[in-house]
Every structure is written in C-alpha cells, then in structure tokens.
Amino acid sequence: MLLLATGNLLVSLYAILTIFLVVISLLGTCNAIGWQLGISEAIAGTIVIGLAVDYTVHLGHVYTEATLHTREGKMGTAATVMGVTVVAGAFTTFGCAFFMFFCQLTFFTKMATLIGGTIAYSVLYSLFFFMPLLALLGPAGEIRSTPEQCRRLYRALRRNREEAPARTGA
User: In this structure, what is the dihedral angle of CA atoms 157, 158, 163, 168, given to the nearest 10 degrees?
Assistant: First the structure.
C-alpha cells in the first residue's frame, strides 16, 4: 500500500522503517512502564499501527509529488505543504485521547496512552527521522506516480506485443 501511495520503492522502504521505529518505540515504552502484553494491548496495538502510518505516508506522498528536482527542495515542499497539517492532526488526535486518561476503566486509560504515545512518536519520527532521511538519501529528479508508471508499463508491453509478430516475420 505504501508503494501505491508514494509511487517509489525507496520512499516506501524508508516509510516502513519509520513506522517500524514508531511501533517498536511505543512497545518499548509500554514495556518500560510495566505493561504485560494482554488481549486489550494486542487489539489496541494493531489499531495503533494504523495511526503510525498516517503522517509518514502523507509526507512521503507530497515528497514524491513535489515538482522540485532536488532532495532538499522536495523535502522542503513536503515539510511546508504537509508539515503544518501533520502537526495540527497530531494536536487534534492527542486532544481526543487526552479525555480518555480520566476514564475509570483501565482499557480506556491504556488506549489513551497508546494513542498519545503513537501520535508523539509518529510526529517525532516522521518529521525528525523520515524527512531528514529523504533529504539525505531520498530519490531526486522527477518521480513518476504509480498510475503513470502503470500506464508506461502498459504502453511498453503493448508496443512489445505489437512488434513481436513483425520480428518473427509473421
């Protein structure tokens, strides 16, 4: 799915690494505060993976769609266009989780911790790991979108199929 969203294998791999770091950091935090992995933590943990993807995918998509051809230019465009949205989304999501901290049921307080931790780690890793990684080692130049790559592949395959009978003398 990340490959479809970004249209670039390298950006997708960097995004997967970033998401992995978010989830590992969150699980490490849960372990550090003494939580055992039970049913509710496992269910909440799978939900949290979806939250961890969001910011990284948005930034990666804008990076690949940027019209500038340098890494720094693409990173600057992604940070300018989507950075404010990512931070605003983090505030609103964390704000929703904030009210669950005051619930009496343990499940809801744990869920609030998981959501809040995921949002915090996602913002940190997407803005201060993923974006600098793209600025240093990301793809540069024109990055074609996934639909454009599929159209080009289709045209090339069709051309090869039409030229095949001509080469065999049929």
Answer: 70
